[in-house]
Amino acid sequence: MSEILVLVEHVDGDVKKVTLELLTLARSLGTPAAVWAGPGYSDAAKARLAEYGAEKIYVAAADEIGDYVVAPKAEVLAHLVAERSPAAVFVAATGEGKEIAGRLAVKTDSGVISDAVGVGEGFVAEQSIFGGGVNVHSRVTKGTPIITVRPNSTAPVAAAAAGAEEKVEVALSDAARAAKIVERVVQEKGARPELTEAAIVVSGGRGVGSGENFSIIEKLADTLGAAVGASRAATDAGWYPHQFQVGQTGKTVSPQLYIAAGISGAIQHRAGMQTSKTIVVINKDAEAPLFEIADFGVVGDLFQVVPQLTEEIEKRK
Amino acid sequence: MNIVVCVKQVPDTATERKLRSDDKTLDRDAADGVVNELDEYAVEEALRLKEAHGGEVTVLSMGPAKATETIRKALAMGADKAVHLHDDALHGSDALGTSYAVSQALKKIGFDLVILGSESTDARTGMLAAMLAERLGAPQLTLAGKVEVEGTAIRVERITDYGYDKVEASLPAVVSVVEKINEPRYPSFKGIMAAKKKPVETLGVVDAEIAADQVGLANAWSEVVDFAAAPPRAAGTVIKDEGDGGAKAAEFLASKKFV
């Protein structure tokens, strides 16, 4: 079977969960080959990638790949596409992943599909567009299919493979060195998982009423090991930082479980969470549109229901 | 400083959006066309940079005839002039074709700085700025939460999952900005009136030296195979809280093995 390149997402040398998902997906369509670009590669990373099915691991670990915005990673992938003629390239549909895929598409004169929620035979991708209202199947018709895949679209399943390492040396072009990263600023975010990667997300909206009140959302999230999200009404009001906004103009999440408290569910919010597997809604307004897509809903005061839910979960642990 | 800000007309996200059954492209008649709201942050940032450093702000929009409404809105906010990239040959262009056409128009217009929103709310590829940087050979300063220009130096804070990266480059450059980088101004009455007199140049594929075999639906690098309205989710259980709503929700989560 032919090779499918999977660009590894990594932070501080740790392989992110979405990469394990992409390796699992690639295994159903070809032979997964992981591509590590940037510093931080280690035996632990190698073991992790092999555990999830990487037959091969291409390693371009030069420090300078991490010193510039996006372009060097696209050059590493373009080099491998030219050398290896893979059947497809999979990249995580994160902000940076989509940009890498875009540059790679231009470099290799290949079609690109953004934010797939599934990929089938013939690399036909499934997308959920217009806020989850329409399902589309699409495919690349020229060049090497480049597909960015939404985190949490595939459950990662381990299946040990060789993980044969191959070093890749790429001489970066001057254009790839044009936007220099002079400092990385890491903001404290505690022990919570990242919003787009989290298996469970607990979000609060207008009904939460204030920034201080978000502590009850956070408590429930922490009890479940979940990420915290917020509706636009809540971020616009300044109750929760903007980067946690779930919705049309914010993050798109697709967790196993999405709990919405005090969110009425305007179409713009549903656009960011409609592909969640299980949806629980808590709102005092029985007419809130989000109840229409809830698997379980409680019409009630979130200040009563959420703390009780948190307490009950604690008891059951 | 010669700033070009790219804006796109998109269907209103508050309405039901559709694809056309004939050629499977966006149905622009099914919903009201509005300025992509993420582009309003780009227009505002362009205006602020002009106010701080002088120069001129040109709006560039690729789209059908009715995209002029969107162009007028950006002019009413305070941009100086506009270029409307409009040609039937461009209809149905995918991300590669669009980035190619826009890059050709940008070469024609000339720029020190190109500013875009982080993505459009209809296609949501989030790729255009990166593709433009690639095609133009210009530094990519995207997903910026802060932009500073000093002479020919430009610095941005690029928003990441862990915080942000401080990034430096030299002009000319391509920037995209995130939502909430600023508070976009509302067009004043005076602005709206003035916009009616501002020059809007229309460029077709020939004018912009766009190779016709690189754009349009027939030449796209990808195709829609089929599409359908998402099936409605199976109706769930909704209960009224009678003092035990939280406990009932916990039971539900336990039944699904979440706790």
UniProtKB/TrEMBL annotation, chain A:
Entry annotated with the keyword Flavoprotein: yes
Q: Which SMART domains match?
A: ETF
**Example GO BP:** fatty acid beta-oxidation using acyl-CoA dehydrogenase
Instruction: Note whether ATP-binding occurs among the keywords.
Output: no
In this chain, FAD is annotated as bound at 206, 231-232, 245-249, 262-269, 283
Concerning InterPro entries, the annotation shows: DHS-like_NAD/FAD-binding_dom, ETF_a/b_N, ETF_a/FixB, ETF_alpha_N, ETF_asu_C, Rossmann-like_a/b/a_fold
Q: What does this protein do?
A: The electron transfer flavoprotein serves as a specific electron acceptor for other dehydrogenases. It transfers the electrons to the main respiratory chain via ETF-ubiquinone oxidoreductase (ETF dehydrogenase).
Indicate the quaternary assembly: Heterodimer of an alpha and a beta subunit.
**UniProt similarity note:** Belongs to the ETF alpha-subunit/FixB family.
Protein name in UniProt: Electron transfer flavoprotein subunit alpha/FixB family protein
The organism is: Microbispora catharanthi
UniProtKB/TrEMBL annotation, chain B:
Which top-rank group of organisms is this from? Bacteria
Q: Which InterPro entries match?
A: ETF_a/b_N, ETF_b, ETF_beta_N, Rossmann-like_a/b/a_fold
User: Is Electron transport one of the keywords?
Assistant: yes
Give cofactor(s), names only.
FAD
What does the entry list under GO cellular component? cytosol
- Molecular function GO terms recorded: electron transfer activity
A Pfam family of the record is ETF
The Electron transfer flavoprotein alpha/beta-subunit N-terminal domain extends over: 23-212
List the keywords (alphabetical): Electron transport, Transport
Q: What does this protein do?
A: The electron transfer flavoprotein serves as a specific electron acceptor for other dehydrogenases. It transfers the electrons to the main respiratory chain via ETF-ubiquinone oxidoreductase (ETF dehydrogenase).
* Assembly and oligomerization: Heterodimer of an alpha and a beta subunit.
* Family named by the database record: Belongs to the ETF beta-subunit/FixA family.
The protein's name is: Electron transfer flavoprotein subunit beta
Q: What is the scientific name of the source organism?
A: Microbispora catharanthi
